[in-house]
Structures are given as C-alpha cells and as structure tokens.
Model the fold of this input.
Amino acid sequence: MAGFLKLVCASFQHKGFHSARSHCKNRTGAEHLWLTRHLRDPFVKAAKVESYRCRSAFKLLEMNERHQILRPGLRVLDCGAAPGAWSQVAVRKVNAAGTDLSSPIGFVLGVDLLHIFPLEGATFLCPVDVTDPRTSQRILELLPGGRADVILSDMAPNATGVRDLDHDRLISLCLSLLGMTPDILHPGGTFLCKTWAGSQSRQLQRRLTEEFQRVRLIKPEASRKESSEVYFLATQYRGKKGAVKQ
Ligand SMILES: C[S@@+](CC[C@H](N)C(=O)[O-])C[C@H]1O[C@@H](n2cnc3c(N)ncnc32)[C@H](O)[C@@H]1O
Done:
C-alpha cells in the first residue's frame, strides 16, 4: 500500500489529479477504497489548487500556523522530503528563494531515500538514507554554517501493515535522527518529527525532553483521523553542553 501511495503521490504531482485513476486499473479492494477516499479528500483537492506536491503540505502549514516553527532566514533540514511538499512550504516560509526582498533569506535542504524533482529555493540530497553515517557529513557540508535551525522529519518507513513493527521502525528512525542533532542542530533550535503512536512513543518523548526545553504532541487536522500518526514538536534545543543560546 505504501508503494501504491507513492505512485499516486508521484502521478498526482507530475501528471495531475485524473492520471492517478488511470495508473491504478489493476488495484486491489483495499487500494480501491484508499483511492476513493483519496480522490474525495478536501486536502488532496486543495493541494492541487495550491500546487503543492502532496496533501501533507497542509499538516506543516497548520503546525506552523499554530506554533511559528518557520520564519524568514532560518536554515531547515527536511528529512523524508519526497515528493517535496514540506520543502515547498519551508522554502516559502523561510524565504529560501529570496522572493521577499525585504526579509532575510533562509535555506532548505531536503533529504530522502527517493529521488526528488528540483524545487526553486531548495537543495536536495537524494537518494540517501538519513541513518547512514556518511549522510550526516554531507548534510553538514551543505548547510550554511554547518548547522540547521529547524529539523523536520516526516520520514516514514514502508509500512508492513503490522502495527507494532511499523511503530518500532519509525521510532528507531526518529531516535537515529535525534542522535544526529548534536552535530547538526543549532542550540535553541527546533525538532519536529512524525511518529505512529504506540508503546515506544514514551521513550522518544523522554529522549526529546532530555534534549529540548519544551516538547508537545500534535495531531494536525490534515492528519487523517483513523491514522495513528502524531507529531512531536520539540523546541529550544539545549545543545551539546545543555546551554540554550539564541
Ligand atoms: C510521508 S513521505 C514524506 C512526504 C513529504 N514530507 C512531503 O511533504 O512531500 C515519507 C518519506 O520518508 C522517506 N524515508 C523513509 N525512511 C527514510 C530514511 N531512512 N532516509 C531518508 N528518507 C526516508 C520515504 O522515502 C518517503 O519519501
């Protein structure tokens, strides 16, 4: 199903809304149900109208509206960036393309296992695995000043459908990324990551609380109600030595 989702996302991005139907003639019952719901989804329609690559743009827009995560001039690392909707939002909010001449210019670096089509104002490092130790070195080389002010992670492993297993895999992905923050995240910085709720969520929350001054759990409206998807927003990174510098 995850592969099917990526196919629909990619076809939606490049060939338009109607082409998603024509790609999926041999779909299973579950895929048919998913596609019917997808085509009726108001966020899918809004993403098409507003030229976002995926409906997930609205999750970040909403979280940003409520919690002011992004502002002009910030350096953003977007992990699990394909097909690029969060990067589109980030480019606009941090002014990475320099379109607002009166505001500071930010920077957006998107990273993914998959190829990402170019986006003005964003730099993409792909295909790479964020958890590969060689990737952090390349990230550091690409980020201006070798630091990000905000780390976003909408990463999700290919779902097996076994809820506990998928949950554990996503938590370990988040923990791996958190393990990279001392090298990448500027003290005072922000870390936003997607998880699927489950037994290991507390462990992730505990680790975040050790590293950040404030940790919140968020379920955006644009996140499907039936999904266990939730986001941890951790702010004011204490930094390597535990001191918050602004
Ligand atoms: C839900 S999609 C992200 C959608 C994206 N935020 C957007 O708005 O376009 C999850 C992405 O995480 C990526 N991913 C999963 N594990 C990864 C890893 N270890 N390293 C890099 N990317 C990964 C997948 O390839 C997939 O593209």
